[in-house]
Design a protein that fits this description.
The chain has helices at residues 4-10, 30-43, 50-68, 81-92, 108-111, 135-138, 164-174, 266-282, 284-304, 330-339, 361-373, and strands at 18-19, 75-78, 99-103, 122-126, 146-152, 179-183, 200-204, 216-219, 322-326, 342-343, 345-347, 350-354. By secondary structure, it is α/β, with parallel strands linked by helices. The protein has two domains: 4-20 and 283-373, Aspartate Aminotransferase, domain 1 (Alpha-Beta Complex); 33-280, Aspartate Aminotransferase, domain 2, CATH 3.40.640. It has a seven-stranded mixed β-sheet with strand order 2-8-7-6-5-3-4, with helices on both faces. Strand 11 and strand 12 (350-354) form a beta hairpin. Helix 9 (284-304) packs parallel to helix 11 (361-373).
Length: 374
């Protein structure tokens, strides 16, 4: 992933292109496709295939726990981050006197469940200034009624990364009853996580983790198992699903297992298991050490072109894989990049660039050269 040889071997589809859009969709290594094919072979066994299916789920749980700094009992899987957040809402059962803090740099999945709740809590917006979230502006939003602080460790919007340790300490001081929920979708697989003290971690599987659609990692530390047990119907997360009293009451498993309400999406977990083990073999610190200087190189190059990124440069101890900028000629810029086989995200006047371990200095230079021409 980090050398020309491994890149060509493991990511042959990257030949001839500069793929800088992992924050939207990753390019999986070949081992992920092999894992998907293995799932199909096992599925072709019919009912006998369930034995390797469930074994693979447990393997995936082990590596996901290792990558998030949790234990296997504290990790479960559902279908996507939207499902995870709706299940979280069912666990919290917030009322009209409860308060939720969200940020305007968060992804909709983490913010909208509280807007559609039957008894909508009070929503407080922590707004970014100059593309960054200032902890001094979070403190006034916190009090004894705050039940949830929802953040993304790295923003999908502009790549801003929240320094987690000071945020954690601030919330604990000013909002003793609040849970801290962290979306690590734009971090897991790209940077070393520093948020194991969060109350719940949620991550999609088709971005920096190099997996495919249809999966979501949910991490709930054991200390929060009772508080974060979902109230959803299903069967896979119910301890007495086939007991004689199953139609009298549902005994839901506590904590993380309660987020796996139905049959696992086995193919997504086969893929995720292979992808995470691939990333572990490469090493997240090595990926960050390779890719972070490319992010800084692009940031400096944008400034040299008179383009102001939407977030301040990432400090060395708080790296991110994303940077973005807005431009009145964003459509022309995007089209020019596409013609040169340089892949970025374009939406509503915003160009977003994402740098992973399979990117190179040539990718960064090609991007900047094309922008200079435009």
């Amino acid at each position: 992933m980090l050398t020309a040889d491994s890149r060509a071997r493991d990511f042959p589809s990257l030949s001839g292109i500069s793929y800088l859009n992992t924050a939207a969709e990753s390019i999986p290594p070949l081992c992920v496709g092999e894992a998907v094919a293995e799932y199909v072979r096992h599925k072709s066994l019919g009912m006998k295939g369930r034995e390797p299916h469930f074994a693979r789920v447990e393997q995936c749980r082990e590596i996901a726990a290792e990558m998030t700094g949790l234990t296997t009992e504290e990790v479960a899987f559902c279908s996507c981050s939207s499902e995870a957040y709706n299940l979280l809402a069912s666990a919290l059962q917030l009322g009209e006197q409860d308060e939720v803090v969200v940020t305007n740099l968060d992804f909709p999945a983490g913010a909208t469940p509280w807007l559609v709740a039957p008894r909508q809590p009070i929503i407080k917006m922590w707004r970014a200034r100059e593309g960054a979230l200032d902890l001094t502006e979070l403190a006034p939003l916190l009090n004894e009624h705050t039940r949830l602080v929802q953040i993304s460790l790295i923003s999908f919007y502009n790549g801003h990364r929240i320094p987690f340790a000071p945020l954690h300490d601030l919330v604990r001081r000013h909002a003793p009853n609040a849970l801290i929920s962290v979306d690590v979708t734009q971090a897991l697989g790209r940077v070393v996580l520093d948020c194991s003290a969060a109350d719940i971690l949620i991550s999609s599987t088709h971005k920096w983790t190099l997996g495919i659609h249809g999966g979501c990692v949910v991490g709930v530390p054991a200390r929060n198992a009772a508080r974060l047990t979902t109230r959803a119907g299903g069967w896979f997360h119910i301890a007495n699903a086939f007991a004689s009293d199953r139609f009298q009451h549902a005994e839901i498993k506590n904590g993380a297992p309660s987020f796996s309400v139905g049959m696992p999406n086995f193919v997504a977990l086969y893929a995720l298991d292979a992808a995470l083990r691939y990333l572990k073999a490469v090493g997240i610190p090595a990926i960050s050490a390779h890719a972070d200087p490319l992010v800084a190189r692009i940031h400096e190059g944008l400034l040299a072109l008179g383009i102001r990124p939407m977030s301040p440069p990432a400090p060395a101890d708080c790296p991110t894989g994303i940077l973005a900028f807005q431009h009145p000629n964003s459509v022309a810029i995007y089209e020019a990049l596409q013609k040169e086989n340089i892949h970025v995200m374009h939406h509503a006047g915003r160009i977003r660039i994402a740098v992973h371990g399979y990117n190179t200095a040539e990718d960064a230079d090609r991007l900047l050269e094309c922008l200079a021409k435009v």
